[in-house]
């Protein structure tokens, strides 16, 4: 709901369209689009108390994820021992950042 309001306000600010005249439709893949603005692309993401919106004149994507404490013991179930050791080691040195460490490489 808040994401839709954010997109409507953005469109209103950029194109001076009345917010109640902005019509959203759904493409075949389920992605929402704005009927009146074929070159307006947007993407929303939300997590916890946060909502983010990206807009562009080309397809765009954005993602946000609330950082929560994780149980590092689960690494033993899904990673080889060598990677598990790296995760534990990095976590002790850098606090709660083991996932960004893995996927950022």
From TrEMBL:
InterPro entries: 4-PPantetheinyl_Trfase_dom_sf (IPR037143), AASDHPPT_N (IPR055066), P-Pant_transferase_sf (IPR050559). GO terms for biological process: lysine biosynthetic process via aminoadipic acid. Keywords: Transferase. GO terms for cellular component: cytosol. Residues 1-55 form the 4'-phosphopantetheinyl transferase N-terminal domain. Gene3D superfamilies: 4'-phosphopantetheinyl transferase domain. GO terms for molecular function: holo-[acyl-carrier-protein] synthase activity; magnesium ion binding. The keyword Transferase applies. This is 4'-phosphopantetheinyl transferase N-terminal domain-containing protein. It comes from Bacillus safensis.
């Amino acid at each position: 709901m808040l994401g839709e309001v954010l997109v409507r306000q953005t469109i209103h600010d950029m194109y001076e369209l009345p917010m109640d005249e902005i019509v959203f439709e759904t493409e075949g893949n389920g992605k929402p689009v704005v009927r009146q603005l074929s070159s307006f692309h947007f993407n929303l993401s939300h997590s916890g108390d946060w909502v983010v919106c990206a807009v562009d004149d080309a397809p765009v994507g954005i993602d946000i994820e609330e950082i929560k404490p994780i149980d590092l013991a689960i690494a033993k179930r899904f990673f080889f021992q060598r990677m598990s050791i790296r995760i534990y080691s990095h976590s002790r040195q850098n606090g709660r950042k083991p996932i960004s460490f893995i996927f950022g490489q």
